[in-house]
Amino acid sequence: MHITPLSGSRAEIGVAHGRAHAGLITHSLEVYDRLFQDFVGLDWGRARREAERFLPMIERGFPAILEEMEGIARGAGLDVEDILTLNCRSEISLTQASGGCSAFALKRDGTQWLAQNWDWRTDQLHNVVALEISGNDAPPLISIGEAGMVAKIGMNEHGLGVCLNAIRSRTCGEGLPIHVALRKILECRDMDQALAVARDDRVCSPAHFLVASGDGEALGLEVHPGEPGRLAPEDGVVTHTNHLYAGSGAHRVEDFPRPDSRSRLTRLDALLRERLPPGGEIGEGELFAILGDHDGAPLSICRHFNPDQPAEERMETLFSVVMDLTRRRLTLRHGKPCESDESLTVQFGDAPGIDPDQTRQDLER
Fold it and tell me: Rounded to whole angstroms, how far apart are CA atoms 286 and 275?
């Protein structure tokens, strides 16, 4: 897997994204057409009409991103309504769809780590893209996500990173769609700006955003249309799966987690305590090993095909990300972390102790 560089104005970034990944974007539309029908009984045409109600919210909270969506559509030869619907896929299917993502932030020996598995339907595996976006009006950033979407999981040149956990809920109100809010956070310079997205712009449907920065700050944000619930680090650690537990803010939101969400959280907490005690050696390899854990399989942190689940609910780990935010370095393993023999590492050159000419490299081929 390689990174796709995008630069220029919002429109130029969008057109380049659409041209580079036109085939994958079209395939993503087909995947979500099936998903909407499986989960909420909507065909693509009805889903497009459903997505229209989020347009005024984006116009209020992040109007510039609409230029990029229009560019993606132009570059891919699609209607802008298709790209809008793709970027609102969480809101359209929120009553039923819930992935199995496991995420954690870890601060050890002056280094701030941020990591997660992204678990979703297997038919999206080959539609995953890595984007390096250098806009005229925002800091350079890396986003790992789905072709045609403006952002998902990643970090920027300031060492600010964000991870995502899906929350299954019937709540949907005023705010930014989840993936649009993630992009706005990735364009923030610091934690205060990132918190303002969740607190002031709000997010129209529930999710968990795990935000951290290279200077050692981390915060879990259970976002929704109201005041977000907050999870502060304990002994340098914040963990989250797919249920709400902050106990403030989002406690008014009802969620419907799958049974394995709590067991994965318990296991994640135990692994971080047992395998990574303070003072021990930590690198990407140790963190990918945690993300590759199979305790409780098939409903484990690293998720594989489970024939006992209904076909429309089978979720597998599609990629894993480990970020060293202190050194501005992101490492991606496409596929399951226990199986992948290839990593993509991207590094911003102005990080402490980093050669400014060495901004990206492919490792472990």
Answer: 8
Q: Each residue of 147-184: pLDDT tens digit? A: 999 999 999 999 999 999 999 998 999 999 999 999 99
Parallel, antiparallel or unpaired: strands 3-8 and 128-135: parallel
CA-CA distance, 162 to 145, in Å (whole number)? 12
Helix, strand, or coil (residue 269): helix
- Three-class SS of residue 254? coil
CA 226 to chain centre: 21
**Is there a contact between 115 and 289 (Cβ–Cβ < 8 Å)?**
no
Query: Which residues, 6 or more positions from 310, have their beta carbon under 8 angstroms from its beta carbon?
Result: none
Is 201 within 8 Å of 227 (Cβ atoms)?
no
3-state secondary structure of 147: coil
Residue ranges of domains in the chain, CATH in brackets: 98-363 (3.60.60.10)
pTM of structure: 0.94
Contacts of 162 (CB under 8 A, 6+ apart): 114, 153, 154, 155, 182, 185, 186, 194, 209, 210, 211
Residues 130-150: tens digit of each pLDDT: 999 999 999 999 999 999 999
C-alpha pair distances (Å), 180 with each of 204, 205, 221:
10, 12, 16
Phi-psi region at 163: left, alpha or beta (left = phi > 0; alpha = psi -120 to 50): beta
Within a 10 A sphere around the Cβ of 111, how many other Cβ atoms?
Answer: 16
Asked if the model's pLDDT at residue 90 lies above 60, the reply is yes
